[in-house]
Amino acid sequence: MNTQLATLENHRRDTIVSNLESQHANIYEKLVKKEATIALVGLGYVGLPIALEFAKSFKVIGFDINKSRVDLMNQGIDPSGELATKDFEDKDIFFTATAETLDKADVIVVAVPTPVGEDKIPNLTPLTKACQAVGVSLGKGNIVIFESTVYPGCTEEICIPILEEVSGLRCNTDFWVGYSPERINPGDKVHTLTKITKIVSGSDAYAEEEIFKIYDHIIEAGIHRAESIKVAEAAKIVENTQRDVNIALMNELSKLFGELDINTQEVLKAAGTKWNFLNFYPGLVGGHCIGVDPYYLIHKAGEIGMNLDVIHASRTINDDMPALVVKQLAKVLATQGKSLKNSKVLVLGTTFKENVTDLRNSKAAEMCQILNMEAKQVDIIDPHADATEFTNYYKLHLTEKIDSNYDAIVYAVNHKEFEHINWEFIQTIRNEKITVYDFKKLLDSPTGNNTNTKYITL
Fold first, then answer.
1. Which residues are catalytic, by number?
2. 302 and 361 together in one domain
3. What is the DSSP secondary structure assignment for residue 376, as one 8-state letter?
4. What does the mean pLDDT of the chain come to?
5. Please, which residues have CB within 8 angstroms of residue 22's CB and are 6 or more apart in sequence?
6. For the chain, is the Cβ count within 10 Å smaller at the N or the C terminus?
């Protein structure tokens, strides 16, 4: 009986897709023939790589409200610093800051930021404004695909109603919607866009099929069809929430082991010899994915009267890490007869992760803010960060070059440019007694019984 039902359902689905494709002339085929155009709304670290990948085969409009960013892209420059000039070459793409250009699009992919505010409440303003702009240009037969991270239900409860109201059209009658969560990992040159399995979903069977074919055209790693838009939205949130919870556990253990004078890295190395041990490590959890996405799940749970205690506690632990790091540094300095308020500290790295330029929601930068209030002098070195942007965000200044006579060095972000800052180099910039705080154990442990050097890791 179940087999018969499945066969009937598959036949019904195929019939719906076939009928709709004949009515709407199959958007994917039009894209391949360049009789249709795909537009990307939001050209940040997510939208731009997608736009350029599509532009290898399709006609593409790249739209962003930031004209200065658009001007750079028209010169073959990625404002996020992730892509090279060659990545812009031989692409059928037009960059614009003029929203009216979206009138020419048949498929529109929305990849705008979805941050949280100071109150940790989701800020959907960029998304709702994008929906309004898309709604103005929406035409019959169009497909709108959302890639922005949202809570389960957001696409159908917030985005589709805006599109319908502004356009005067009806979803699944006049236009279609899909959700395909972004999985871009900034700074990662191995797990790039085409090499990561893509999740797709649609507002009905026709939308799912067309969206599948559109992404399958560019994704090498394969496509996973989610059961529904809500499932696809939830999957994206869970990916990062799982990491957040596991890192919070490691951070809490690191705090405990620090009090017990146990080396956390050595504990994890020993525990990792078991085949099913998960390799998570303590660290600063910032950026606009792991440090943000769980709040969307917390918000949605709150709307239905649920408390996500484990997830909320994990967020609290990870958000408190910058202050804990400064506290630990002060404690170790005290063992050398020094106080933080009289110490000169060098911080290496302040973007939210290694080898990226993005400063948004950087816990390393938050740590620098706390250090700046408590230490005598803090020199901050970061070859990837923009000095003006850093000052605007955090009211601090980057240091142009490494000085000398440091009482403490903090390896906060392991940019590749810091590989030369080894123990030999440290000897040339250290004070007589020095504390080295190496978050991810970039350095080998110092050899010998040198009481003038304190080396600690998270």
1. 289
2. no
3. S
4. 92
5. none
6. N
